[in-house]
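Late entry, evening session. Most of the bench is empty. Finally got around to the prediction I had been postponing all week. Sequence below, unchanged from the version circulated by S.P.
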Amino acid sequence: MRKSLVLTLTAGLVATSLAVPAVAAKKAKPVKTTLYLHGSAPIGEADNFAIVAPGTYMTMDATEPSGAEPKSKQLTNYVGGPNTQCTGNDLFPVWVGDLTGTVTGDMKVTFHTIASGGSVDVQVWPDVASQLCNNDLTGAAAYPEPAGTVRVDLPQGPGNVEAVIEGVKFKAGSKLMLQLTPVVESPFFGRVLYDSTAFVSSIEFGCIPAKGAKSCTP
């Protein structure tokens, strides 16, 4: 009986030692990502404006600004006018950058303004690089809901704004669009400033790169 018990215990130990332990798959962690807001012209309306350069947008990428003088674009605010339910609205400040991966967690958008007050909706869309409105020529509802949005008040006079879009989670196949949409309540005047060492405007977030990649940006 005792001999049989010893043999059973020995067999069990041998089997355990030969078993290959299961290795838990490593969960991908978000990589801290910052995209800086750029422009090619001192006056942003030359980069993106419905009359001058329709359908083109300012850029954002991982390169920090190096110029001393800021670029700027008007925060167009109107009580009556073209449809505001648009991504990539040519009348608003819009940036598009290359991004591939899964954005997760909070997104912090920092930008500088000089304004008489007012509010803006800070909105982001993945894989959008053109203007899409809810009253397009086909009559279809082409306006996609933003993947993240937050409304913030603008300081009177010069100031900087930190807008936090909380708890987002979405995949970007190739692009990310950021738009500052003025809130239509009462008229105000303002411009957003960006792309200089003194006026660094950016968007920060965590992003899980695509399989095999170490970063979500080029």
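Two things to note before I forget:
The first strand starts at residue 31 and ends at 37.
The mean pLDDT is 85.
Will write this up properly tomorrow.
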